[in-house]
Amino acid sequence: MDRYARYRRLALERPEDGILRIVFDRPETLNSIDAETHHELVEIWRDVEADPEVAVTIVTGRGRAFSSGGDFAWVERIASDPRERVRAWKEARDLVHRMVDNTKPVVSAINGPAAGAGLVVGLLADVSIAARSAKIVDGHTRLGVAAGDVAVLIWPLLCGLAKARYHLLLCEPLSGEEAERIGLVSLCVDDDRLQETALDVARRLRDGAPCAIRWTKYALDSWLRQALPLFDLSTALEMLGFAGEEVKEGLASWREKRPPRFSRDCPF
Length: 268
Description:
The protein has helices spanning 35-50, 72-80, 82-101, 116-124, 140-143, 151-159, 161-170, 176-181, 194-207, 210-220, 222-242, 246-255; strands spanning 10-16, 19-24, 56-61, 67-68, 106-110, 113-115, 127-131, 135-136, 174-175, 187-189. It has twelve helices and ten strands. A six-stranded mixed beta sheet has the order 1-2-3-5-7-10, sandwiched between helices. Strands 4-6-8-9 form a four-stranded mixed beta sheet. It is of the alpha/beta class and 268 residues long.
């Protein structure tokens, strides 16, 4: 585990031979993503790819949440500091590109709230498993920025354009059951079976024909590679929004626990 010693925000576990479990490990904040967590989430895929002892990866969250999305203090820095904004954009891009190019299967076990960069990993996983109590939401437009991260890349492929439009434009949350029904996740299981189901799927992937599985994964991910320009556009527009006025109202409304009052004026 020496290659993983530098990680502080992500907990790395080896539940069985050939299986690495990546755990969002800030349960006191519902595993929100701050700048350090975001950086580690980008870097971990290089280490996974280079680790000969890892055949399959499981991603989950500690405690009651998978990941509640961006830490508000970090979001405010992105909105106020152009250099932080560019760094966040580059890391968001690297995270998605590295996951798409990762050759080893990834299983996500989505427990509780799942949003933001955590949801990126949850939905990009090769097999995504949600607990019934999971609450999946893309909250970008509620915050006052375009739906970036991986939303425009993956949602239309998984659940179709009509459902993607509905959930991304309105920030309408989904339960684990509804996410499975519309095809956003692979499976939905009872909460008490989530981790064991994820481990069982990981075992089956580990024990299968490694080249056949990896080559199939690589071919399937070509759907995502074709759509990467859409991802780059959406994430650039998200960062443009962080330089505007709407995100200020979005952040203020979150902090004051009230509905946002956005101006109807838009220069676009």
